[in-house]
Specification:
Shape of chain B: globular
Order of helices and strands of chain A: EEEEEEEEEEE
Structural class of chain B: mainly beta
Distance between the termini of chain B: 36 Å
Shape of chain A: globular
Number of strands of chain B: 13
Radius of gyration of chain A: 14 Å
Largest sheet of chain A: 7 strands, mixed
Number of strands of chain A: 11
Radius of gyration of chain B: 13 Å
Helix content of chain B: under 10%
Largest interface: A-B, 24 and 23 residues
Oligomer: heterodimer
Distance between the termini of chain A: 40 Å
């Protein structure tokens, strides 16, 4: 079974750092793009950026460039999303999602999705 | 960026009736070299991640009931549920993957009358 399993919920204070993870299994991790998607409380879906685990080729949405870092460790089939200095406005559910087709470019639909990681930033 | 606009924002339909959700893109998402529309539809139920329903505008994902169908081309697209079931209550999103940054519609909430 193809699945993405994300790390658990995080509660942080403004200014703190955090790194959440997304572990793929049941498929060739290096040959599918993985994206990160934000969903703020009660809001819609926002594409943050994408990484190709085989060579770590990464593209960020302009809205998130410089705010987060996307990385991957193909040796353990895991992608990451990290912040160096969190803000209260980063409070959201974060999903990783795999492209529906192997190889290709950054343009693709997403299937499957991870279960989500809730990041709460509060003083 | 390509802006995706869904209509309506919310929809109330009786069980067994047809539900129609529209999605309009600010630019064409039809790629001329392969004649494919780079448009997907997702269903999101409370407390769950989105689930893929349709890709290439009209290709149903494996395991998705055939009451779900997608249509349209260029800038105008439709998700149709032919006979609404109770388990179809959810939020529905369209997504374009023609041009990064990938963008989603704002979502349509579907409820039972």
């Amino acid at each position: 079974e193809v699945q993405l399993v994300q790390s658990g919920a995080e509660v942080k204070k403004p200014g703190e750092s955090v790194k959440i993870s997304c572990k793929g299994s049941g498929y060739s991790f290096t040959t599918y793009w993985i994206a990160w998607v934000r969903q703020m409380p009660g809001k819609g879906l926002e594409w943050m950026g994408i990484i190709y685990p085989d060579d770590s080729d990464t593209t960020y949405s302009p809205s998130f460039e410089g705010q987060v870092t996307i990385s991957a460790d193909k040796s353990i089939s895991t992608a990451y999303l990290q912040w160096n200095s969190l803000k209260a406005s980063d409070t959201a559910m974060y999903y990783c999602a795999r492209h529906g087709e192997a190889y290709g470019d950054q343009r693709g639909w997403f299937d499957p999705w991870g279960q989500g990681t809730l990041v709460t930033v509060s003083s | 960026d390509i802006v995706m606009t869904q209509s309506p924002d919310s929809l109330t339909v009786s069980l067994g009736e047809r539900a129609t959700i529209n999605c309009k893109s600010s630019q064409s998402v039809l790629y001329s070299s392969n004649n494919k529309n780079y448009l997907a539809w997702y269903q999101q139920k409370p407390g769950q991640p989105p689930k893929l329903l349709i890709y290439w505008a009209s290709t149903r994902e494996s395991g998705v009931p055939d009451r779900f169908s997608g249509s349209g081309s260029g800038t105008d697209f439709t998700l149709t549920i032919s006979s609404l079931q109770a388990e179809d209550v959810a939020l529905y999103y369209c997504q374009q993957y023609h041009s990064p940054p990938i963008t989603f519609g704002q979502g349509t909430r579907l409820e039972i009358k």
